[in-house]
Amino acid sequence: MPRWFDYLSASSPPTTQVEEDEVQSVPHTRRCPPPRQAVSPCSGQGGPDLPRLSHPRPRHVPPQLPRRRRRRRRVECVAQFDKDLLFRDYRIASANADRIAFAVDVPLLHRALRSALTIHAQSLAGPSAAAAAVDIQIKLVKKLPAGSRSSAPFLTFETKGARSAVVQDVPISKPLSRADVAELQASLDAAQDLPQTLVQVPDLSQLQSLVDRLKNVGDLLTVSITQYGDLHLQVSTTLITVGSEFRKLRVLGAHAEPPVGDQNLSARTRTEMAIQRGEALSVQVSMKHLAKSLQCHLAKPDCAFYGIAPHGACLTVIFQFFIPGTRLTDKSISFYCRLPVLDPGSS
C-alpha cells in the first residue's frame, strides 16, 4: 500500500472544479467513537513555586481503549507532530520504550493551552527581552486532588511570562497499559495506508457551505469518488434527491481517463457507470459526521484530500500542510480524519 508522504510531497498547480446541482423527484427508500487523542507529554525540571490555577472539580477521564473488533461509530481525528516542532527540550522516560499514552478531556486541555497562549501574547507585547523569557513546561505528575485521599495523574502546564506565571493542572486518565499502547500504535501505523484514490478539494469553505445546505434535506449523505477526479455528494429522501458534484479535481493514486461518451450524461448516471467499471467507490456517511470533520479547517490546512478505503471501510480525509513559503509538504505534521460508514459501500 502507498504511504501518505509518497503522494503528498509533490507540488502541483491549483486544481479546477465545477459544481453542478441536480434535483430529482424519485421514489427512494432511506436506509438506515475512537479514543480521544492520546498525548505524549514531555517532562522537564520544575522551577520555583508559582501561583496555581487548577480546574474546578478535577475528575478522571476513563481511557477509551482501542478495540479491533468494534466498528467505528464516531469521527476519528488524529494529529501527530514531530517533537522538535513543539519542544525545545524534550525528556520522557518509560519502561515501555519511552512511550506514554492516556486519555484527556479535550475542552480542559484546550483551556490550558489558551491560557498559556494568552500569557505568551502578553509577553510579546512587551520588550523583546521579555518575550524571549517566556517559558512553558509540560509535565506528567501525580498529585493529591482536593477532597481526595489518593493521588491522581495530571498533565501540568507551568507558564512563566514577563508579567505573570500560572500553573494549570489538567486531569487525565491513568496511563494505558503496555498492551493498550501497542494496540494504539498499531492502529496509528495502519492508518498511514492511503485509499487507492484520493481527490483534492482545494476550497474547504465552499464544501462546508454546500454541506450546510444539504443537511437541511436529509441526515444521510452518499459520497462517491471516481478515478477521473470527480467528487459526488448526494442526499436522498422518499420525495427528493439532491446532489452536487466537483469535477476535474487533482487525483493521487489510481487514476483513469473519463470515457468520452460519458460527458453528456448526468452526474448520477456517470457515477453509477464508473462504479460498475470499478473506477469509483461510493459510501454513505452521516451528515453530522461530515460536518464535524469539516470543522478541522480551523487548523488552516493548505489543502485536503478525500478518499474511500478499500471495500468502503471508511471515508478518509487527509489535511496537508506546506512548509511556509513553499508548496512542499511539511512532514512534521500529520492530520487526518476517518468517518464511519453507514452503508457497506459498492466497488
From TrEMBL:
Q: Please state where this protein is localized.
A: Nucleus
Q: Can the keyword Nucleus be found in this entry's annotation?
A: yes
Q: Where is the composition biased (Basic residues)?
A: 54-72
**Gene Ontology, cellular component aspect:** checkpoint clamp complex; site of double-strand break
Annotated region Disordered: the residues are 1-72
Q: The organism sits in which domain of life?
A: Eukaryota
- What InterPro entries is this protein classified in? HUS1/Mec3
User: Keywords for this entry?
Assistant: Nucleus
Q: Which GO terms describe its biological process?
A: double-strand break repair via homologous recombination; meiotic DNA integrity checkpoint signaling; mitotic DNA replication checkpoint signaling; mitotic intra-S DNA damage checkpoint signaling; nucleotide-excision repair; telomere maintenance
What protein is this chain from? Checkpoint protein
